Amino acid sequence: MSYLKRVPVPVGTLSPRPCLASDAPVLDLSGQWRFRLLPTADGPADFASAGFDDSGWEIKPVPSHFGTPAYTNANYPIPVEPPLVPDENPTGDHRVTFDLPPGWPAGDAALRFEGVDSCGRVWLNGVELGVTFGSRLPNEFAVGHLLRETGNVLAVRVHQWSPGTYLEDQDMWWWPGIFREVRLIARPAGGLDQVRVQAGFDHETGLGTLTVDGAEVVSGPDLSRPVRPWTAETPYLYDVVIRSGPETATIRVGFRTVSIEDGVLKVNGRRILFRGVNRHEFHPVTGRALSEEVMRADLELMRAHNVNAVRTSHYPPHPRFLDFCDELGFWVIDECDLETHGFEPFGWQGNPTDDPAWREALEDRARRMVLRDRHHPSVIMWSLGNEAGVGRNLGAMAAAMRALDSTRPLHYEGDRTCEHTDVNSRMYAPHDEVAQIGQSTTRPFILCEYGHAMGNGPGGLSEYQRLFETFERCQGGFIWEWIDHGIASERGFLYGGDFGEELHDGSFICDGLVFPDRTPSPGLAEYKKVIEPIRITRDGIENRYDFRSLEGFSLRWGYDGGGGGELPCPPLRPGEQAPLEVPPGSGWCTVSALDPAGHEIAWGQWQDSPSRHELPAIPDGPLERGPEVRLDVWRAPIDNDQFGGRPPKLAQLWRDAGLHRMKQRTISLDPLRVRLAPAAANFGLLATYRWEPQADGSVRLEVEVEPDGQWHVPLPRVGLRFALPASLGIAQWFGGGPGEAYPDSRQAAKMGLHRMSVDQMQTPYVFPQENGARIDVRWASLTDSGGNGLRIEGDTPFLFTARRWTTEQLDAARHTSELVPSDRIWVNVDAAQHGLGSGSCGPVALPAYVLHPKRLRIALRFVRLGNGV
Ligand code: IPT
């Protein structure tokens, strides 16, 4: 097995080519295969022979993974001695028998693997063909001479660890397998093999250009007349039929030209702004084996949230994904299958990126990606890879890419001086650094990763957006990342360590804008609002698309005091503004912009007069007394409080300070005055409670809070906590909603009257943590189905949280299944909470959102509803 001992370059494969949908016959070999798992790489290879009896093997669907998933972020889970790998090497032997369909042509055929992790040794009918390398790149073998009409036996031995492992250290599950399709494709002599299709657009003349090398154009648009250009906002595609010899294919061509002018990245002559996400391929059951439906659904969901760009972190995606990006309209940064992050702990000593012996392997990956994907209009930039350090082989990769395609700029975040690349890129740069880069950069600047969407967060997105709108060369960014990679189980979604890994990085694998089952998290709602391409304010409406006019859009307006309707949307061109003529009304006015399909793209809100929903309630009877309230400062730390980055983390400072174990001492009884402080600390909080029964039967409570002694940490929250009977499971409030919101992630909260069950108020972060707060709440009620319960009104807006477990239970839980409803509903009414930030990987909460202990007053009125509590 010498192929496990030298640099990972495929053995015996055909030269790479684009795989266009042609009229050449194709046989999809996906389906039920036979499978056995071996503990080492060197099991007997007798299974490759046609006569081998595999009837005792398990049946396994292909594409799929095998073995046990294991998660590390940057560390290699094997000893680092490139290119060697340990003896213990889970190896999956796969076998499938197939017949040729009737009429299959004689002659050449390619056996094509779209993705094998991490390498596969291949036999057909007992003849060894070679070895695949490059998990997320195609490998093809010539097999025409070996095919039989019936009873062909394909055998593939897949190793979890291979020399390729050293180049594929992406932050994701280690999970081997033939995880993309395997197909047999007839290759007629003289067919469409070395084809290059290039389509450009001249924005001054409106004319398109089309260059097709290696094939003739049979039909296509009339290029003597203007064409409709392709952009992510106007993804217009033309069918072009090309032919070479006996093979014909229809390709979907988009006319567009990417350029960098005066340090600004442009498409068709205009600056573009990335509203992007980093996308890994992931499904909670099938891992990186994705169906087309899932790929498409991801893009539809992104589009519904105003996302216009994808970085294919950190490897070329399934090829169909790019077809969908062309069709639906996305800017794509196509990233090569390269990451060597695990060399960082050694100061990058031994990094393949800088080792001449690995040059061929890196160049090979670069070439194979470009040759596979360069006909896609959605791909507007190539990325050399991710977190692979620096070194000579980057230059070789860049040169290989430019030789095959000179029409797209190159990206690599690690290339800080742009020695080999064209755009300035950073990950997780804090706001002030982005502002500083914005003032000084001479190149387009992007945040290839920002807004680490782990758990509750990220905070601070709107502040980034303002920077992208201020500096022309700051052209947006890509949230890290699209989806949580939690694996489905009865215990909730599983993450690193749940499979007994000896080295792992825990829940750091769950850092997406959507949960593993693709339910949007509050972070995605926030992002949608922050990046909305139409801005609506009391002053007017502005089109912030780069290409698209607002023709066909409509406006919907309404007052919470009643009244509403539709308004014509001015057909603004990009960058144009117009005043809005909203009829007068009372209360909060909301104006939404709907796209031609009727989906809400953007909205604005303002208050014209006090809302009728803000009036105090009339009690249904006297309240004997208010609930037993307790001053509360603790929150179950969110991921951004406790993971990633450099210690000490905020959550640790909080725990060291003892904020999760405050003790109370009564100072006086009338009014009740207490001091709350943790053991061993010389600081605390003084609180004075004044209860006042009101003539109408309601009860008022005023709490004065005042810091005492020397505080050296901010507070997680300041507010009151109390318990209500479990039967009061229906929440209603007037304030921000419907979803959760926190001080630095609150753009998506719409003022209004909201109602949902306490259970629906919970956000099921894969790793349990503080969640579910509703912001800017004027009043909240909790009732049973008969309307009996309690209403809480604030003199000033508060944060409202209700859950069926305590903060302590939330804090102790490691998986969502550990959160078991108690016989109480626990309510928090907070004057303030500490911001969310993006501290699990990136900047902590901005200074404006740090909750410093300070004097404050919480004034509430408790009102009986129905029969009360
Ligand atoms: C950055 C990686 O590029 C990305 O793959 C992911 O691991 C992310 O971090 C954390 O979730 S690298 C980091 C050192 C900034």
From TrEMBL:
GO molecular function annotations of the record: beta-galactosidase activity; carbohydrate binding
Keywords assigned: Glycosidase, Hydrolase
Entry protein name: beta-galactosidase
Entry GO terms, CC: beta-galactosidase complex
Record-annotated Beta galactosidase small chain/ domain positions: 617-863
Coiled coil (residue ranges): none
Lineage of the organism: Bacteria, Bacillati, Actinomycetota, Actinomycetes, Micromonosporales
Pfam families in the cross-refs: Bgal_small_N, Glyco_hydro_2_C, Glyco_hydro_2_N, LacZ_4
InterPro entries recorded: B-gal_small/dom_5, Bact_Beta-galactosidase, Beta-gal/glucu_dom_sf, Gal_mutarotase_sf_dom, Galactose-bd-like_sf, GH, GH-type_carb-bd, Glyco_hydro_2
Catalytic activity: Hydrolysis of terminal non-reducing beta-D-galactose residues in beta-D-galactosides
The family this protein is said to belong to: Belongs to the glycosyl hydrolase 2 family.
Biological processes, Gene Ontology terms: lactose catabolic process
The enzyme's E.C. designation: 3.2.1.23
SUPFAM superfamilies: (Trans)glycosidases, beta-Galactosidase/glucuronidase domain, Galactose mutarotase-like, Galactose-binding domain-like
